[in-house]
Amino acid sequence: MVSLSGVAVEVAGGIGLFLLGMSLMTEGLKNMAGESVRKALMRFTRSPRTGVLTGLLATVVTQSSSATIIITVGFVGAGMLAYSQALGVVLGASVGTTFTGWLVAIVGFKLQLGAIASVLILVGALLRLFGGARRSGLAYTLAGFGLVFVGIVNLQQGMAGLQEHVDLGFIAADNLGGKLILMLVGVAFTLLTQSSTAGVISTLAALHTGIVNFEQAAALVVGMNVGTTFTSAIATIGGNVHVRRTGFSHVVFNTIVSGCAIFLITPYIFLWQSLLPDVPLAEIALVSFHTLFNLVGVILILPFIGQYARFIERLFPEKPEQQQTLLDNSLLKYPELALAEVQKLLAGQARLLAQQLVYILGESPRAISLANTGVALAETRQYLDMLHLDSSAGKEWERLLACIHLLDHLQRLYDRCQNQNVVLVLHHGEELHSARLMLLQLTQDLLQKDKLDPHQASLLVEQLESQEDHLRELTMQQIARGSIELKQGISLMETGRWMHRVGWHLTRIEHNLVLLDPMQTAESAVAR
Predict the structure, then answer these.
(1) HSE (CB half, 13 Å, CA atoms) of 494?
(2) Coiled-coil stretches, from where to where (predicted)?
(3) Which residue of 11, 101, 260, 400 has the fewest CB atoms within a 10 Å radius of its CB?
C-alpha cells in the first residue's frame, strides 16, 4: 500500500504536468494560429450571435479562453469591436473552454497513450532544438500535447492510490447542502491551480477511479465553472474600463449559470438514465453536463444580450479622460492589440492638438485644454518602453516604429503649442498671413476625413520653408535699416520657423496615423 504522502505527490505531479502541458500547447497554438484567430475575430464578429460562434472556435483553436477574452478586450479598447459584439465572444469562450474535457474523456481515459505521449514530447523537443524559430509553434504544441497526457496518466495512477486513503462519502451530494460544499471545493481548487480545465480533468480522473460518484463530480465541476471567473476578475485589477466590463460580465454570467446548474444535477441524472439506460454515468456524461449548462445559458441570454451589455456599461461608465489616457498593461503580450491601444490614444491627442492649433491660428474663439495631453504622452512613452520587438516581428515591428515616430512628433507639437509668444505674434503679424493660411490648411486636414494628397501636403510644407527663408531675409534687412526693433524681428523669425516646424510635424503625424489606422488593418484582413 502506497503512503498517502506518496500518492499526494503523484497527484500533484500529474496536475503540474497537465498545467505545464496546457501552457506549452496553448503557447504553440497561439504562435501557429494567433494571427488567424485575431483576423477571424475581426472578420466574423459582426453581431453578438456570430461572436458566440467565433469565441467558441477561437477558444478551441488556442485552447485558452483567457487568450480569446484578452484579444477581444484589446479590439474593444481599440474601437474595432463594439462591447455588445465582444460580449458574444466572451460567452462563446465559456462554451469553448469545455472542449478539453471532451478530448480527455474520449481519448485520455480510453486509450493507453503513455508511449505515444513520450514520442510526442521527444519530437516536440527535437523540433524546438533543431527546427528553428519558425517551427517553435508546432514544437510547443506537440510537446505540450504529450505532457498533457503524461499528466493524465499520473493523475489516474495517483487517484487510484488515493482511493485507498480518501473517502468522500461523508459529503453526500444528494442534498443541496452537500452540493454547495462540493461546489465550494471546486471553486477553491480552481483558485489554487488558476485553471478550471485542470480542475475538470482532475475531477474526471477522480470519477474514472471511483473516488467520487457522478453527483459529487458534477457539483465539483459547477464550482469550477464559478472559480474560473476569479482569474478574470483578478486580471481586471488596474485594467481599463473595457477590461473591467469584460471581466465582470464573465463573473456574472458564470455565477448565474452555475447557480442554476447546481439544481439541474438530479434532473440531468434522471434524464440520462431514462434516455441512455445502457450508457453509464461516467466521464462522457460529466463533460456533456458541463457543456450543456454553459450552452443553454448562452442560448437563453442571447435574446437579451443588448440589455445585459447596457447593464454592465452602466455599472462601469467610461469617462472621457479615461478613454484618452489609460493604457492596459495586460495587452503588452499581444503586440498587435497593445499597438492598437496606443494608436487610439495618440490619435485622440493628435486631434486635441490640431484643435488647439486652429485656436492659435485665430480661426476658433475657444482654446482647447491640453492639461491631460502631457500626461497621456508621458504614459505612452512608458508603455512603449515595455513593448520590445525586433525586425522579425514583421508588421508589428513596422507599427511599433510608426508609433514611436508619431509619439515623437506629437511631443514636439505639444511643446510648440505651449509657446505663448508665437500666439501674440501670429495675431498681430501681417507678414505671416499667407503662411498662416497654409498652416491652417494642414491643420484642418488632420481634423477632416477628406484628406489632402500626401504630395499636396509636402508641397505646402516646402512653401512654408520658402516663406520662412524669405521672412528671415526680409526681417534681417528691416532690423538693419532700423524699421523694426531687434526684439520684434527675432520674434517674427522665431514664429516663421515655428510655422515651418509645425507644418512638418503635422504631415508626419498624418503619415504615421495612416500607417496605424485600425480600420485599414481590418479592411485588409477582410480582403485577405
Answers:
(1) 14
(2) none
(3) 260
Question: Quick one: how far is CA 53 from the chain centroid?
Answer: 18
3-class state of residue 418 by DSSP: coil
C-alpha cell at 78: 481599440
**Chain length of the chain:** 528
Q: Amino acid identity, residue 113?
A: L
Give the chain's end-to-end CA distance (angstroms, integer): 62
Q: Is 238 left (phi over 0), alpha (psi -120 to 50) or beta?
A: left
| 220 to 131, 186, 213, 395: CA distances (angstroms) | 42, 5, 11, 45
Percent of the chain whose predicted confidence (pLDDT) is above 70: 80
Nearest CA to 427 out of 515, 367, 501 is that of 367
Summarize pLDDT for 49-87 with one digit per residue, the tens: 888 888 888 888 766 676 677 777 767 766 667 777 788
Question: Which strand (E) or helix (H) includes residue 430?
Answer: none
pLDDT in tens, 260-273: 999 999 999 999 98
What gap in Å lies between CA 21 and CA 158, rounded to an integer?
18
Q: For residues 337-368, b (16+ Cβ closer than 10 Å) or e, as one string? A: bbbbbbbbbbbbbbebbbbbbbebbeeeeeeb
Q: How many CA atoms within 13 Å lie on the side-chain side of 146?
A: 16
Contact residues for 303 (Cβ-Cβ < 8 A; gap 6+): none
> Alpha-carbon distance 312 to 249, whole Å?
7
Question: What is the distance between the alpha carbons of residues 337 and 213, in angstroms, rounded to a whole number?
Answer: 45
**Which residues are CB-neighbours of 523 under 8 A, at least 6 positions away?**
none
- Amino acid code (one letter) for 402: A
